[in-house]
Amino acid sequence: MDAFRISVSDEVLDDLRARLARSRFTSPSAAGWDAGVDPAYLRSLVAYWGGEFDWRAAETRLNAYPQFIDRGQHFVHRRRDSSRPPVLLAHGWPSSFVEMLPLADLLDVDVVIPTLPGFLWSSLPEGPLTRAAIAEGFHQLMTETLGYERYFAFGGDIGGAASGWLATMYPGEVAGLHVIHGPFPADFDAHPITPAEQAFFDAEAARDEWDSGYSDIMSTRPDTIAAALADSPSGLAAWILDKYRAWSDCDGDLESRWDRDTLCTALTLYWVTESIGTSFRQYLDYPSNAPRPTITVPVAVTQSHEIDMDAFPRSIAERAASDIRQYSAPHRGGHFLALEEPQLIADQLTAFMRAVS
To answer: Cα–Cα distance between 100 and 90 in angstroms, integer?
Structure first.
């Protein structure tokens, strides 16, 4: 395990600013964000990113957190003087460890924040990047590298799904699982689908009518879109900002949840690590995922408030997990809930860990 500090060269930053200054912008196809990222907003954000944004200040803030790399796995490891088990905080796409830092600051136990394989400085494993493969790497980090005997896992999106696999693969070591997207069962054969469950499936289908294009491309032609995003920082910004706005609980106002420095920090991390293409790998490899067994460890759910997730019924989670100890739907905070509502998650995660450990 080697200590790690973020250190981006002046040459890389100069090149980024030069590319941003030469950005070309499209004409709007519809009003505002109706056809994707608003070109006027993108132009404004790109100007800020290339001009006012202070990467060196952001770099200093991030380096205040102890970071390490072990066997190709980048992670933050912040220790606290606590007798309770630590917690692993797992992010999703299009995110990074930065999403979990405000939450980590509020917790009174040891915190480990791994960067997903293929994201930033974490390398891809051999073979398909499945949720189980991610979980295996996380468990190796927690037990072999850091020496913890038991730990909690928290996450959403890819990180939440991988944490679900952690719970099923290593129930003796995972003390409890906390997720912001209720887990899905391997199938719905045990009981007839309820009206509430069908309403959720219908809502999901409706969402896919207008929000599945990114996934379709990344699942079938990731290298094609990655070629454009790896060459154009403004294109990279458009691809990511579209999801930050659509998936966060911002009511259409992106900067009500993401200040510009946080946005530019996230974008810069993807750019300087040249990892946007490898961050798509889990989409391409998704068909390699096997059905996940029932989760038997204690589970907490804090349901995110995004797109169709308000329609998610607890019964679906109960099909997937046999021991749900805590369930809430606070109706605030979206796909990036730990960043959007860190105090809410800190309170609920802490209550869960104290009740279980």
So the answer is: 8
What is the pLDDT confidence band of residue 310, given thresholds at 50, 70 and 90?
A: confident
Q: What does the chain come to in residues?
A: 357
Q: Quick: pLDDT tens for 169-185.
A: 999 999 999 999 999 99
How large is the angle between the packed helices 39-51 and 233-247, nearest 10 degrees? 120
The highest-level CATH class for domain 60-200+293-356 is alpha beta
Q: What dihedral do alpha carbons 338, 344, 347, 349 form, nearest 10°? A: -40
Contact 177, 169 (CB under 8 A): no
- Residue appearing with tokens 């190709």: 72
> How far is the C-alpha of 288 from the C-alpha of 185, rounded, in Å?
17
pTM of the full structure: 0.96
91 backbone dihedrals φ, ψ, rounded to 5°: -85, 175
For the segment 320-341, what is each residue's pLDDT rounded down to a tens digit? 999 999 999 999 999 999 999 9
Q: For 262-301, b where at least 16 C-beta lie within 10 A, e where not — what string?
A: bbbbbbbbbbbbebbbbbbbbbbbeeebeebeebebbbbb
Cβ(75)–Cβ(141) under 8 Å?
Answer: yes
> What residue spans define the domains of the chain?
2-55+211-283, 60-200+293-356
